[in-house]
Amino acid sequence: MKGPMVRGLAAASLALALGANAAELETDAQKLGYMIGMDVGQSLRQQGTDIDLDTLFEAIRTTYEGGEPAMTPEQAQAVRQEFVQKRQAAVQAEQAALGAKNKAEADAFLAENAGKEGVVTTASGLQYKVLEAAEGPTPAATDTVTVHYRGTLLDGTEFDSSYSRNEPISFALDRVIPGWSEGVQLMPVGSKYEFYISPELGYGEAGGGPIPPNSALIFEVELLSIGEGE
Fold first, then answer.
1. Residues 88-132 pLDDT 10s
2. What pTM was computed for the model?
């Protein structure tokens, strides 16, 4: 880290080290330094970074004043790499635990849902329910369709909705998750279905955006037309 940020961190750390409070912040440099220190402290707190603040202050002061650091650049880089690797491993472990929890909840939900009135389960494991029937044509796997839809997690959290945007969406059926591709092909134009999509037919172990790993998804889909939307 070089340049203005180092100078800002140094000023912030020096102010903190001296135990500055609001009444003692008289100059613009002191106020700016303390403000940056607040940002840095909040960031470290949110990340849960375990550091020794006295050592942090010492390193900033030494570097800022042109002294001899206690670490060589190579040693610092090694510490940085080790820290990043540990953080990545921790994040992966958290994701794996969350994924396992979500997978168990998805399996339990789909097993129970399969026995509910009106729910049909296909060979792939996709579940659907007809909300509004129609007698229009059905799309092929490579067709482009225009739909209105709402997507929720099992706890009812809405993660996406064309209804909320008041704007339907057009897309090719071979460019979406398997559960959508299979399910929409079952729909006549003018119908509305509810799909219950397993993680395997959705976003899987990786998840995506607001969708956690191994999440079962519920979609309400209304097929408006086949072909490019206007």
1. 998 889 889 999 999 999 999 999 999 999 999 999 999 999 999
2. 0.71
Cα 21 to its chain centre, rounded Å, is 38
> In Å, how far are 38, 40, 110 from 52, measured between CA atoms?
16, 14, 48
Rounded (to 5) percent helix, strand, coil in the chain: 45, 20, 35
Give yes or no: 163 in active site: no
- The predicted-structure confidence for 65-90, as pLDDT tens digits, reads as follows 899 999 999 999 999 999 899 989 98
Neighbours of 189 (CB within 10 A): 18
Residue among 107, 109, 143, 159 flagged as catalytic: 159
User: Does 229 have pLDDT greater than 80?
Assistant: no
Burial readout 31-52 (b: 16 or more C-beta within 10 A, e: otherwise) = eebbebbeebeeeeeeeeeeee
Q: Which of 60, 177, 211, 218 is catalytic?
A: 177
Is 219 a catalytic site residue? yes
Task: Determine how β-strand 158-161 pairs with β-strand 169-172.
Answer: unpaired
